[in-house]
Amino acid sequence: MREANTLILRTAALILVPMQLLFSVFLLLRGHDEPGGGFIAGLVASGAVVLFLFSYGVSATRELLRVDPRDFLGVGLLIGLVSILPSLMLGQPAMTAQWWEIPLPGGGYYKFSTPLIFDVGVYLTVIGSILTMVVGLSESEEPDV
């Protein structure tokens, strides 16, 4: 697939891609308490990378990612699997949520949990799945006419 040759799309991509990625992290972090989560956040992040791919082409996108999209898929599945271990180690049913309070400077606490770990795994798995398909389709040769 060739990159787009429009100045408007390339300029818009440079502005929109970082905003979409930041919004995907927002959706990921709020998802275990409110609507959002790993799946929709992964779709938003994938959409940002696909916009970049359409604007700048496959080689620039591979340089941006620095790793093969299948690696995101594998790491995401591994993180999702790791998220069930704390409950199993405590003798509870698999996927029972575990919560830890991590002290922050200034006296506050950050609530870290196994649902967040699972959401991160889903996030990376969705990104890896979508980008593996889109980049693979973009790299396939177009038929001769």
From TrEMBL:
Which InterPro entries does this entry report, sorted A to Z?
CPA3_antiporter_subunitB, MnhB
Pfam families according to UniProt: MnhB
Occurrences of domain Na+/H+ antiporter MnhB subunit-related protein (ranges): 8-131
Signal peptide range: none
In its keyword annotation, does this UniProt entry include Transmembrane? yes
One GO cellular component assignment for this chain's record is:
plasma membrane
Give the similarity note.
Answer: Belongs to the CPA3 antiporters (TC 2.A.63) subunit B family.
Residue stretches spanning the membrane: 7-27, 39-60, 72-95, 115-137
Q: Where in the cell is it found?
A: Cell membrane
| Location, primary (coarse class) | membrane
Q: Keywords in UniProt for this one?
A: Cell membrane, Membrane, Transmembrane, Transmembrane helix
Q: What is this protein called?
A: Na(+)/H(+) antiporter subunit B
Source taxon at top rank: Bacteria
